[in-house]
Amino acid sequence: MNLMVGSGRIRILLIALLISGGDSLLAQEIYKADSSEIRFFSSTPIENIEATNSTSTSLLNLARNEVSFRVPISGFVFDKSLMQEHFNENYMEAEKFPYATFKGKLSDTLDLCKDTVYHISATGLMNIHGVDQANTYNGIIQSNDGKATLTCEFKVALADHNIKVPSVVFANIAKEIEVKATFYYVPFEHE
Q1: For 29-46, what is each residue's pLDDT tens digit?
Q2: What HEC string does the chain produce?
Q3: Which domains, from first to last, does the chain contain?
Q4: Positions of the chain with pLDDT under 50
């Protein structure tokens, strides 16, 4: 009888260890970025346009070698409020298409428990303005003390995502927009 009680305690102890061990394994496989900066730049002879967004989120799933992010379109901040209004209402139609997203497969297996730098690429679908485009994007992931930073630069062609620019301001906006993105990751923890 005493053996059964002991055996039951061992089972409970093993279940508790598995559950807590599972959480720590999961925390090492999934990283979440709540802190980010997305910056875009449009350069033309007439005018330069720049905006930043610090409201984006991202997940790194190391078990599946996947990365995804979601960028709220209305989160972009411009120096001129009129530019911001035109961007959200006329060009990006933020009410109809509130987010830009990406989901892709990483080119390499990452171990973010090691302090190292990875030159990686991700191949997947970028959705902007309701239009999916398959592409491969290059970036750098630097891990340090169990945290990671992803930086990448790429260009987005307005025509690829059916973003129309009125002829009145066509010369003011570049056909390709330069984008710089930085995401700061920490291990994901269940609440």
Answers
A1: 899 997 999 999 988 777
A2: CHHHHHHHHHHHHHHHHHHHHHHHHHHHHEEEEEEEEEEEEEECCCCEEEEEECCCEEEEECCCCEEEEEEEHHHCEECCHHHHHHHHHHHCCCCCCCEEEEEEEECCCCCCCCCEEEEEEEEEEEEECCEEEEEEEEEEEEEECCEEEEEEEEEEEHHHHCCCCCHHHHHHCCCEEEEEEEEEEEECCCC
A3: 30-187 (2.40.128.110)
A4: 1-27
User: pTM, whole model, 2 decimals?
Assistant: 0.80
Q: Considering the chain, what is the average pLDDT of its residues?
A: 84
CB neighbour list of residue 102: distance below 8 Å, 6 or more residues apart: 67, 68, 69, 122, 124, 125, 126, 127, 137
Residues making up the chain, counted from first to last: 191
